[in-house]
Structure to design on (83 residues):
C-alpha cells in the first residue's frame, strides 16, 4: 500500500507523476497510480533483497566460528581407569 503524502505539495507531485505516466501508458490516472505503487514496491523489494544477499555472503563474525584449541583435551575416561 503506498504511503500517504505528508504535505499538499507532495500530494500534487504524486498526482502529476501519475497523470504523466497515465498519458504515456494511455490509461487512467488511477491505473497509473497502481503502476507507480507496483514499481515502488518492486524497487523496495530489490533493495531489501540486495541487502539480504550481502548479509548472507558476508563473512561470519568471529564469535560464530568454531573454537580450535592448540592442545585438545582427551576424551573423559571411565572412573576405573583414572588415577
Amino acid at each position: 500500500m503506498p504511503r500517504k503524502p505528508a504535505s499538499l505539495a507532495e500530494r500534487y507531485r504524486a498526482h502529476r507523476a501519475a497523470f504523466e505516466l497515465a498519458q504515456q501508458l494511455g490509461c487512467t490516472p488511477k491505473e497509473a497510480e497502481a503502476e507507480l505503487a507496483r514499481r515502488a514496491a518492486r524497487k523496495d523489494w530489490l533493495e531489501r533483497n540486495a541487502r539480504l544477499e550481502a548479509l548472507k555472503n558476508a563473512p561470519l563474525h568471529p564469535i560464530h566460528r568454531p573454537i580450535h584449541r592448540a592442545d585438545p583435551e582427551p576424551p573423559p575416561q571411565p572412573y576405573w581407569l583414572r588415577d
Summary: The chain has a mean pLDDT of 87.
